[in-house]
Amino acid sequence: MSNLLVIDDNPAVATALEVLFSLHDISTVHAASPAEGLALLDTEAVDLVIQDMNFTADTTSGDEGRALFAAIRERHPTCRWCC
Description:
alpha/beta, 4 strands
């Protein structure tokens, strides 16, 4: 079974993805912030990360998502990634 990490501050998004991927025998864990996601990557075996690109309200630049992507790649270079 594959393991998926969803990093998104919207719990409804995480729940929807959990339901979707469970139909394909893919387990998911959810982090509500970049810091929580990076901490989970240190303790959980994760095959794929799906992440939000904006975590601060009214932000649409995607800068937070790019910074998180860079941090994930630096700390876990073999982890696959999707946004």
